[in-house]
């Protein structure tokens, strides 16, 4: 589903991504973890070109995203993206947040798009909030709407960039449970997260990143029981109290 | 005062119309409305060029803003008055000359307000809109500008009000509008300067106050909608 081939990115002299190679297979749930500043978010943002890369190639569904002639908007519409800060559109109601892309990019009628919004809100447990404005929702509810919005174009792949890091602790569970349901349906998912229990229960694979490089690419069982790198051992010791 | 208004009311309201072009308060209203209607879209284009990726458009729009906001309106009016006939080869009526000068001048100021408005929308909004597949213009139109414009209302009203008042300067090239009428009345009456200019000041005040009031209620409505308070 996604292939990283020797991906490098620099911010001026700072080497943000260092020769990233790896593959995310269809139906797989990949959890990316690592200390802050390790390049996790940068890496996930390169997949839908929110960040440009300087060398290497990224393929999504077999298509090289940096090729000329790739319709970047069509590509992005086919990749769900969930932000740490939710980023709902504050001037639009919940149903319009979800319907915006299907109407503007997918060519649906407004009526069809609202029906789709209802269906997706049902899925994330917020069918009674269709007419609410984002300002009236809790953080957990906003993030669930953001997940519904990311699902609106029926993407085969969703990227989560620290989806629970900005939430009050009591709201983390509701968002994770929506994510677990998606994983159970066979959705291909890449999640940058510090939720190690989620990683243990749901992930098929874990990447541990440090200083822009992937240090470990392994199974959760292997990662939690026998982390190979000193940095990974220290990270786990710091994060699991 | 009543007799004064009785005598000159029509001259204040419409100038020498129907024996000449529409002037007076009506002339000012038309000039201000067309000025804003022309300046706003022009300013939007300049602001988009200034925030966009194309470096030529960025350079050109920057020059536009720096030039026209650094020259007094009266200079631009004079320039247009003497330059437009040379460029077009025909005589340009004073009204069109004044309108062109006002649009050019105000577009520079409005463009900077719009640029600030666009840049005040959090980057996450642009990213989220692009991530769901919206193109550059779709993202601007559906996500960034609606939020930017509602943040910009107070500054925009400032500039709109200042534009309305600035139209009073164009009487010097003979455009028929409120200040021109006042000037005429003053030169007929000779001793009624205070009364004449009081009526003129009241007209500008009421017009601008009305606009401010409308903008305030629009602002409140947009905020309530965002907070989910409106029905």
Describe this structure in words.
The complex is a heterodimer of chains A (241) and B (231). Chain A is built from nine helices and ten strands. Chain A has 241 residues and is an alpha/beta fold. Chain A has a six-stranded mixed beta sheet with strand order 6-7-8-3-9-10, sandwiched between helices. Chain A has a four-stranded antiparallel beta sheet with strand order 2-1-4-5, covered by helices on one side. Chain A is globular and about 55 Å long. The model of chain A has no long low-confidence stretch (mean pLDDT 94). Helices cover 80% and strands 0% of the residues of chain B. Chain B has nine helices and no strands. The longest helix of chain B has 34 residues, at 193-226. In chain B, 36% of the residues are buried. The mean pLDDT of chain B is 91. Chains A and B meet through α2 and α3 of A and α6, α7 and α9 of B.
Overview features:
heterodimer; A: 241 residues; alpha/beta; 6-stranded mixed sheet; 4-stranded antiparallel sheet; 9 helices; 10 strands; B: 231 residues; mainly alpha; 80% helix; flat
The number of helical elements of chain B comes to: 9
Distance between the termini of chain B: 47 Å
Residue share in helices of chain A? 25-40%
Quaternary state of this entry equals heterodimer
Structural class of chain A: alpha/beta
Helical amount of chain B? over 70%
Distinct helical segment count of chain A: 9
Gross geometry of chain A: globular
Instruction: Label the overall shape of chain B.
Output: flat
Mean pLDDT of chain B: 91
**Element pattern of chain B in H and E:** HHHHHHHHH
Largest sheet of chain A: 6 strands, mixed
Unreliably modeled segments of chain A: none
**Rg of Cα set of chain B:** 21 Å
Question: What is the structure about, briefly put?
Answer:
The complex is a heterodimer of chains A (241) and B (231). In chain A, 38% of the residues lie in helices and 25% in strands. Chain A is of the alpha/beta class and 241 residues long.
